[in-house]
């Protein structure tokens, strides 16, 4: 009998149509969770994931929402609660990057990055918490970034959004711990997804891999495994922590 560590839990993963979120959703499903897959534009990709999960008997639902919009977030949570049940686990993964010289960054770009990467998790945490508090149980994992810990030239706004998410994680962990809720973050190093492919050409990616002590870029499975751990019972006394998944790059 396999040990399904998340059996019976309803998990919402934001930005699960592609990349890291997609990998996390698959890993949580393999641990017995019921999955709500949030997407914004990539309806086809989300649909394919749902088909694959339902094909192996997983309860899964795709929900369209822009996590930066309060009305979208409200509709998403209501739909998931109606169709899958109360959400006991939330993974705030949806995010956008921005590579630009600081002085060339517009106010609109600042607003867009902050809205998705920081306001999104704020809205989702605020919506999920009352039920978690009532149940005296909840698990939240925020996908931050190594840049939120150390900063990054030409990615100051992105780094600031992830630094804010790290502060939010630590603060909410302190506030919610008495209610049996853990709030942790993962700080991935460079992970091979569309986001990275979009920003760096092959030469730059190879150069980057050489800078990492593990001698390779990260894969979505590396982040997904860390997320499963933080959501599992094994991590019930791990709270307010930022788990780097970066091949010792930031060690
Ligand atoms: P990705 O391949 O570009 O995928 C981004 C995902 O976020 C997509 O599913 C996208 O949905 C969703 N998304 C974006 N804006 C959204 C919004 N407003 N509302 C709902 N969903 C939205 O990126 P990734 O590399 O997997 O990154 C996932 C997370 O990891 C991000 O928070 C990122 O900052 C973080 N991270 C990534 C790396 C890396 O090297 N890749 C490193 C550190 C941290 P649609 O396609 O449906 O629009």
Outline the low-pLDDT stretches. none
> Rough shape?
globular
CATH architecture: 3-Layer(aba) Sandwich
On the 0 to 100 scale, the average pLDDT is 97
Q: Main beta sheet, described?
A: 7 strands, parallel
Bound molecules: NADP nicotinamide-adenine-dinucleotide phosphate
Q: Count up the helices.
A: 9
Which strand order do you get reading across the main beta sheet? Answer: 3-2-1-4-5-6-7
**What's the order of the H and E elements?**
EHEHEHEHEHHEHHHE
Kindly report the CATH topology: Rossmann fold
The residue fraction in helices comes out at 40-55%
Radius of gyration: 17 Å
**What separation lies between the terminal Cα atoms?**
38 Å
* CATH C-level class: Alpha Beta
User: How many individual domains?
Assistant: 1
The percentage of residues in β strands lies in 5-15%
> What is the count of β-strands?
7
- Pairing-aware structural class of the strands and helices? alpha/beta
Task: Give a verbal description of the structure.
The chain is α/β, with parallel strands linked by helices and 251 residues long. It has a single domain (10-243), classed as Rossmann fold (3-Layer(aba) Sandwich). It is built from 9 helices and 7 strands, in the order βαβαβαβαβααβαααβ. Strands 3-2-1-4-5-6-7 form a 7-stranded parallel beta sheet, with helices on both faces. β2, α2 and β3 form a beta-alpha-beta unit. α1 crosses α9 (220-231), α3 packs parallel to α4 (107-135) and α4 (107-135) runs parallel beside α6. The termini are far apart. The model has no long low-confidence stretch (mean pLDDT 97). It binds NADP nicotinamide-adenine-dinucleotide phosphate (NAP). NADP nicotinamide-adenine-dinucleotide phosphate binds at residues 14-15, 17-21, 38-42, 66-68, 93-96, 116, 143, 145, 188, 190-191, 193-196.
